Amino acid sequence: MSLTHAPGPLAGEPGPANYAIDGPRHRLLATPLPRRVRAELGGETVIDTEGSILVHETGLKPALYVPLADVRADALTRTDHATHCPFKGDASYRTVTVGDRVAENALWVYDEPLAPAAWLDGYAGVYLERFDRRLDEDDEVQGFPDPYHRVDVRRAAGHVEVTAKDGQAIASSDRALVLSETALPNRQYLPSEDVTATLHGPTETTSWCPYKGTATYWTVELADGTRLEDAAWSYEDPYAEATRVKGLVSFWGDAHTAFIRS
């Protein structure tokens, strides 16, 4: 993400620099993922490799590709589904079947990749969410992080207030933390004790970040009874990069809420 989204050097509109990249506006870059990667379906391992790569593509999140030779051939069925990419070529698809578990079109393959992407020959792209388990070494994961993406957490310099768009108070804190994440806006995280509005939840909504972990969401009830659904979130068991925000609460700085720092 940091390479292929502004202001990264491989973005369509990179940031200010004293150089120019002589090449297409839409760019591809493969980087090794130097760990053992496995995927399971129906309780059986169908992908087991130490040769996977992450393909970075302008405007897109990195995609995992694995050597097709490291996928169980007896579990694969080529389907009629096909897509075309003007930068990589024509992709054919494979369904993975183990017993009664079927991951339809879970892999895609560029059988004859275009010359600028010839290095994709012999690799298969993976829809990770179509498998039951994904393992990064021996840790179960939902996806694989971009090595060029980072998260930094710092103490906020100054007082932080959070208000609804109509001015009603939500939170006020001298103990906020600022989480900076590559190519994304800063987020302020506050102790729940400094939230003056009422938090209801957690709700049924969750989201997953490969750098922070699984987020739990909360509904914010304002003093006048207005409820802002899923307007706040927290990481109750964050990954190592974000341990400092464990249990702290952040809010959408959008149509619902506004941050004021003084």
CATH class categorisation of the largest domain: Mainly Beta
- SSE pattern, N- to C-terminal: EEEEEEEEEEEEEEEEEEEEEE
Average pLDDT figure: 92
Could you say what the CATH topology of the largest domain is called? Answer: Metal Binding Protein, Guanine Nucleotide Exchange Factor, Chain A
Number of helices: 0
Radius of gyration: 22 Å
Q: Span between N and C termini? A: 31 Å
Strand proportion: over 45%
> Uncertain regions: pLDDT < 50 for 5+ in a row?
none
Number of domain units: 2
The shape, in one word, is globular
- Can you count the beta strands? 22
Name given to the CATH architecture of the largest domain:
Beta Complex
**Strands side by side in the biggest sheet:** 1-4-5-9-8-7-6
Protein architecture, described:
By secondary structure, the chain is mostly beta strands. It has two domains: 28-140, Domain of unknown function (DUF427) (Metal Binding Protein, Guanine Nucleotide Exchange Factor, Chain A, Beta Complex); 151-261, Domain of unknown function (DUF427) (Metal Binding Protein, Guanine Nucleotide Exchange Factor, Chain A, Beta Complex). It is built from no helices and 22 strands. The protein has strands at 28-32, 37-41, 44-49, 53-57, 63-67, 76-85, 89-98, 101-110, 123-126, 133-136, 139-140, 151-155, 160-164, 169-173, 177-181, 187-189, 198-200, 206-209, 213-221, 227-234, 249-251, 257-261. The strands form five sheets. Strands 1-4-5-9-8-7-6 form a seven-stranded antiparallel beta sheet, with no helix packed on it. Strands 17, 18, 19, 20 and 21 form a five-stranded antiparallel beta sheet that branches. The protein has a four-stranded antiparallel beta sheet with strand order 3-2-10-11, with no helix packed on it. A hairpin with a 3-residue loop joins strand 18 (206-209) and strand 19 (213-221).
